């Protein structure tokens, strides 16, 4: 695989990555790699236990069954503390895991772009016709940016050109889809109006 093919693939990959929603990627990876916490089962069990005790307490009269009611109330207070403690531990663990995954995702998603900038900054994907020394130097500087040789097309410029073309195609697709949606809406509206007019005409006859 030559440098032109490699840089083209990397440029397309960078563009595809730019379309991804980082938060969605984080959630997707989190559901795959973050194991279910054993504490979560304990938390669910405590919540169910609390709900059962609360139902039992609410059935009692505080005046007629004061001792029993007070005992259940103390158990509820104790469960509330345990639930709060486990919830805090789970939340802290999730925050740490999410931060780690977010960092890894950021590195992975930005790696193709950094590979282009660092390892292909001097790479020429195309060589212009040899012997032409009258090529405008400012334009040549843009083509070979940042450290390419004179009368060459650098990898960074080539990747930027691909990104511009793909972005234009994406925008054209979005606009075309919106126009088709508006056209279909207007067509349906006109059809409904025609049907309503026909119905009124038939009714008048």
From TrEMBL:
Source domain of life: Eukaryota
Alphabetic keyword roster: Coiled coil, Endoplasmic reticulum, Membrane, Signal, Transmembrane, Transmembrane helix, Transport
Residue segments, region Disordered: 185-205
Pfam families associated with the record: CHD5
Signal peptide start and end residues: 1-22
Nucleotide-binding in keyword set: no
GO cellular component annotations of the record: endoplasmic reticulum membrane; GET complex
Gene Ontology process terms (BP): tail-anchored membrane protein insertion into ER membrane
InterPro entries named among the record's database cross-references: Get1 (IPR028945), Helix_hairpin_bin_sf (IPR029012)
Stretches with biased composition (Low complexity): 185-199
Keyword Transmembrane: yes
Topology relative to the membrane: Multi-pass membrane protein
Cellular compartments annotated: Endoplasmic reticulum membrane
Gene3D superfamilies the UniProt entry points to: Helix hairpin bin
Stretches assigned to coiled coil: none
Family: Belongs to the WRB/GET1 family.
Protein known as: GET complex subunit
Source species of the chain: Pichia kluyveri (Yeast)
């Amino acid at each position: 695989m030559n440098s032109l093919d490699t840089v083209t693939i990397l440029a397309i990959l960078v563009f595809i990555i730019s379309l991804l929603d980082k938060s969605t990627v984080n959630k997707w990876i989190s559901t795959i790699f973050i194991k279910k916490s054993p504490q979560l089962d304990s938390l669910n069990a405590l919540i169910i236990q609390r709900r059962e005790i609360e139902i039992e307490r609410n059935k009692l009269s505080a005046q007629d069954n004061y001792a029993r009611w007070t005992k259940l109330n103390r158990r509820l207070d104790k469960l509330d503390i345990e639930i709060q403690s486990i919830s805090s531990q789970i939340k802290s663990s999730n925050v740490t895991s999410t931060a780690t995954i977010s960092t890894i995702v950021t590195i992975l998603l930005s790696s193709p772009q950094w590979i282009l900038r660092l390892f292909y900054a001097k790479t020429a994907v195309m060589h212009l016709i040899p012997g032409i020394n009258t090529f405008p130097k400012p334009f040549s500087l843009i083509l070979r940016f940042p450290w390419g040789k004179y009368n060459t097309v650098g990898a960074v410029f080539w990747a930027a050109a691909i990104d511009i073309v793909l972005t234009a195609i994406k925008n054209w697709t979005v606009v075309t889809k919106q126009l088709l949606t508006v056209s279909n809406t207007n067509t349906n509206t006109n059809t409904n109006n025609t049907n309503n007019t026909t119905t009124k005409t038939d009714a008048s006859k």
